[in-house]
Amino acid sequence: MVRDRNDILTFLQTHKDEMAQRFGVVSVGLFGSYARGEAREDSDIDIAIELKPEKKSLSNFFGIRRYLEQQLGKTVDLGIESTLKPLARKMVAKEIIHV
């Protein structure tokens, strides 16, 4: 179970190569309450990713989300950064921490 932003960032950095190999992840970043240091017990973990074009599929999207939830022990709100709506992308850009 994760405790704070550093736990999540350490996990993402440590497992970045595995996520790239298994799911085609080319970038990953943390945003939202954990990135801001404002997470509560009931907070989900907000993560934005980019996938290799040939790996973009619902199977890989749900696979990486399931993998992250199992490993981190929390609900993960996963988004593909390049497909976020302009307002959401602007808000995410202000606080995202890429690993």
TrEMBL record:
- Keyword ATP-binding applies: yes
Superkingdom of source = Bacteria
Enumerate the UniProt keywords alphabetically. Answer: ATP-binding, Magnesium, Metal-binding, Nucleotide-binding, Nucleotidyltransferase, Toxin-antitoxin system, Transferase
| Span of domain Polymerase nucleotidyl transferase | 13-96
Q: Which cofactor does this sequence's record say it needs? A: Mg(2+)
> What SUPFAM superfamilies does its record include?
Nucleotidyltransferase (SSF81301)
Q: Which GO terms describe its molecular function?
A: ATP binding; metal ion binding; nucleotidyltransferase activity
| Stored InterPro entries | NT_sf, Polymerase_NTP_transf_dom, Type-VII_TA_antitoxin
Record-stated family: Belongs to the MntA antitoxin family.
Q: What is this protein called?
A: DNA polymerase, beta domain protein region
